[in-house]
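User: Predict the full complex structure for these chains.
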Amino acid sequence: MSNSDRTGRPRVVVIGGGFGGVRAAKALGHADVDVTLVDRTNHHLFQPLLYQVATGILSPGLIAPALRRVVKKERNIRTLLAEVVDIDVHGKVVHAATPSADQLDLPYDYLVVAGGATHAYFGHPEWAEHAPGMKSIEDARMLRSQILGAYELAELATDEKEREAYLTFVVVGAGPTGVEITGQLAELAQYVLPKEYRSIDTRQAKIILLDAAPSVLPPFAPKLQRYTQRQLEKMGVEVRLNTAATDMDSEAITVKGPRGEERIIARTKIWAAGVQASPLAAVLAKATGTETDRAGRLAVDPDCSLPGAEGVYAIGDMVTTVDRLPGVAQVAMQQGTYVGKQIANRVKGDHTTPAPFKYFDKGSMATIGARQAVADAMGFKVTGWVAYLLWCYVHIMFLIGWGNRLGTLYNWVRSLRYARNRGHRLISMTGAQEIAERHEAA
Amino acid sequence: MSNSDRTGRPRVVVIGGGFGGVRAAKALGHADVDVTLVDRTNHHLFQPLLYQVATGILSPGLIAPALRRVVKKERNIRTLLAEVVDIDVHGKVVHAATPSADQLDLPYDYLVVAGGATHAYFGHPEWAEHAPGMKSIEDARMLRSQILGAYELAELATDEKEREAYLTFVVVGAGPTGVEITGQLAELAQYVLPKEYRSIDTRQAKIILLDAAPSVLPPFAPKLQRYTQRQLEKMGVEVRLNTAATDMDSEAITVKGPRGEERIIARTKIWAAGVQASPLAAVLAKATGTETDRAGRLAVDPDCSLPGAEGVYAIGDMVTTVDRLPGVAQVAMQQGTYVGKQIANRVKGDHTTPAPFKYFDKGSMATIGARQAVADAMGFKVTGWVAYLLWCYVHIMFLIGWGNRLGTLYNWVRSLRYARNRGHRLISMTGAQEIAERHEAA
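Assistant: Here is the predicted structure of the two-chain assembly.
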């Protein structure tokens, strides 16, 4: 199967429908090119809110609109559901596989690779089955089943030790994602679930957040780090710093910290620590004779182009630049727009060397739970509910589509403390069984 | 594992958290009894709106609130996530299996069995894999992946015949569920998807609704049947009556009707025809030495009690009564309340023979799509948007919780024709692959 030459116009292939890929494609929406946007899912995922799907606040659809709807108005963009398996940078063809396992060849004049990143388990890939992370809607749904399933199993448990094992939750990694999911775990245990159970007191659940670093939220200002830790502790979270995971099995996690090594019996472990670039980074590195870094990322030129591969750009979490930008949505989005505009200019005949990509840091923020947040932006350091409102505003506005914005806002109101509800708490028996099987295996 | 005697009060076990089970449990919320509500899912499912999950209008959470939240205020009801495997009506014990495969024994003084129904394929269980039905959230999600996945695969197809096969949808069964999902398939093809695809014209999709009966919506008034058929045909649906499915494979469905036998090439087949009572009906029939009917239903006495099993009641889709009530939510709900009250009376010492259960028929309604519906209630026969508004009102009010009511209303507004959106369109690669594999297998 081959990409028929639709119009004779330059062909741009964009791999990945995340923050970077969508911005790149949209920046080409009015250019005289044919754009093909390829993704292995049918949706554009707003990853920063995945933890709210995992804890029942949001329904998956609100943060994952159909990709082809996102680019519906750009008539020169077509969207294809397929998984890229190889990139031939010399022949200028992307090889993909369709869901029906047909081969799909996509010749390009320009290529934008925005493959993102997955979890990294620091050389312990076997931990993945014990401590799932959150990168896809499926991950978040499974995590939701495991978290809520743990309470169901605790309610059924007849043995006190077993009950405690189900009611202990360990989050590894105290960056924004780790802090945010920990805060929601505490809200579930303290405010949402207590009155729904008869045999257990969900407020007795033990929630532990650990990080090898000496503070939570490493990239934030020390004042905000201290505030965050204090708030989490007020919510009953045990924050363990300078503490690393050293081993893990279905039953427990072994950690090493200031108190020495300790085995914590906990059925639910959540991974929010390392990330690893998409395997496409390695594919491109091999094709151009370069190497990826420790996190599997590809080095690109200051204009995000890939040395040794004509017309190829790589952006987002899968690349590193000389200025070592953080792996956040803002960087990918700005790089996407930058690369899209650059291609549009080149198609128009402008072949001057573009100004290097420059990241405009709009700041960082994280919610803590119980309507608290921290924001570190433009020199201001804000905490409490002011930061929380700021966080809400920014995240709502970055969602795509007013329908999703209003729907998300609505669910946030529903989750407020007086309502004490989480509207989206479906669990699959499989998820509950997975938690249970860990127990069986142990 | 055994059910510890919590208070010494009479123990009521309710099996099934559907319409019947929840009503029965709630009717006992103020009685001097300990109620145990057992379900193999953690949610109370509002089945009449499942087709809206399958077609992307509603998120699953809106029609499936957590069961234990539904009975949160009734402090004498505990909810357990487990699957009932056997019922010992002589020893008065329910045997269940927890997600961790532990055995759970629930002794009872009174038992309410409300196990519902599943699909029936008229002696062709092998059709289940080709023509999925809708009874659970998982069913609806999988169907959504298959319906939207079919369009994705049509967009990728290079062969015209293959494309047509993906763009042909056959719904078997023209009762309310069949009519409602057919209407939504037509809306997707005609109004929602056209502008999102580049290689296919989704308006060319062929949508066929077939039924062995001579009219659509068999239980409705002839005037409403004719109106419904006309509206569906206006939306491009091919309605084939007096037509039955005779064979099915991954590639096609064979039907027999007035035009003789015909093999229709269609990748997506949806089953909305027969239902089969929960296997618990057979368990109870065997235990009491009776037999189930052709649809696997159990015969109960006029007071919904089971002859030959002391203290056991069975209600809803899994039973038949002398007055042959339809298998609808209203019947199950009314029977649930009736049985709950009866048990409450008996516990208070009132052992007089209760008045037989009497069904109060509030009428039937069905949406057709494009803001059209039919309603046949209290002697009134209403069509068009008036019926549609009535339908909306009734269905919103029967949802549990204001949060879900408002959320559902919001998604209905989003799905209106001017917005032409469906907010919840996530598909899993597995769903798309399942459709594709049918093609491979063929």
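Chain A touches chain B through 66 residues (CB under 8 Å).
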